[in-house]
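User:
Can I borrow your eye for a moment on a structure tokenisation matter? Would you put together a sequence-and-structure record for a protein of your own picking? Please set it down just below, with no commentary around it:
AI:
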Amino acid sequence: MGKGDLAAQAEQALLNVAAGLKAAGGSLADVAKLTVYVVKLTPEMIPAMAEGLGRAAAKLQVDPRRPTTLIGVHALSHPDLLIELDVTAVL
């Protein structure tokens, strides 16, 4: 989804996290910490990432603000992936 489009991948990643939490009986409200990994992160990429996460949060009608760590990485498990979310939730 969204090859080369950080905003689209960020949006889908958060929607996927929300679906996984819902399947486990939780929601994004249960997230205690979010770690965001972005391939070859530069300051110029942050607005696109924030836009995508914001779009997903708007679709889910949730407040996207959580304690967050943003980490730049060289690569992820697939060359088309630009972002990965690691979530700690308390259910």
